[in-house]
Design a protein that fits this description.
Blueprint lengths: L1 E7 L4 H9 L6 E8 L5 H8 L4 E3 L9 H14 L4 E4 L8 H5 L5 E5 L11 H7 L4 E8 L9 E8 L6 H24 L6 E2 L1
Parallel strand pairs: 1-2, 1-4, 2-3, 4-5, 7-8
Antiparallel strand pairs: 5-6, 6-7
Helix pairs in contact: 1-6, 5-6
Bound molecules: glycinamide ribonucleotide.
Glycinamide ribonucleotide binds next to helix 1, strand 5 and helix 6.
């Protein structure tokens, strides 16, 4: 059984989709939901789903990313996690942390990578006049939002779309894509999946 730790910072809707997918003959199970934000709405959702939760508040480690990551790692190791899924986790991990989990950290990013790494992806797609937008699940490497692509889902941008309307239409696609990619990775298949 593949043990999955899910890292969140916010509402945790992708986390919920991942947790709900890991049942039956799925080769993975969630063992930890960890948030760097004590007030993250996803923590209560994870508790309701009977997944162990933990908080490592990054604000307790000002200017000390290393100690923050030592705490992250301790929690992930405590639960003997094999795979880490970043699901709306809004801290940048250092190359040192990532090196300890080579090929074992996945992330979902709300753009069609390699377009729009970083923040404000919906606004940037609109400002560029793009005809379509989407989300990407990728392997995490030391370069931000740049690892091998494991899956993408796309949607057309409509006249009158705003960053908010795009985000709202994209989220359900994220909830389909991320579990589908996790299942493939858990089965040993890293061929990109295009929805
Ligand atoms: C999702 O849209 C995810 O793609 C994005 O944050 C949101 C989290 O929502 N992630 C990033 O921007 C990562 N840089 P959720 O907490 O409801 O899953």
């Amino acid at each position: 059984m593949i043990r999955v730790a899910i890292l969140i910072s916010g509402s945790g809707s992708n986390m919920e989709a991942l947790v709900r997918s890991m049942t039956g003959d799925h080769p993975a199970r969630p063992v930890l939901v960890l948030s760097n934000v004590p007030a993250a709405g996803g923590l209560a959702k994870a508790e309701a789903l009977d997944v162990p939760v933990h908080t490592v508040d990054h604000r307790k480690y000002p200017r000390d990313r290393r100690t923050f990551e030592v705490e992250l790692r301790r929690n992930v190791e405590n639960m003997q996690s094999d795979l880490i899924c970043l699901a709306g986790f809004m801290r940048i991990l250092t190359a040192d942390f990532i090196a300890g989990y080579e090929g074992r950290i996945l992330n979902i990013h709300p753009s069609l990578l390699p377009k729009y790494r970083g923040l404000d992806t919906h606004a940037r797609a609109l400002a560029a006049g793009d005809a379509e937008h989407g989300c990407t699940v990728h392997e995490v490497t030391a370069d931000l939002d740049d690892g091998p692509i494991l899956g993408q889902a796309r949607l057309p941008i409509e006249p009158g779309d705003t960053p908010e309307s795009l985000a709202a239409r994209l989220l359900p696609l994220e909830h389909r894509l991320y579990p589908a990619v996790l299942r493939r990775v858990a089965d040993g298949n890293r061929e990109p999946l295009y929805l």
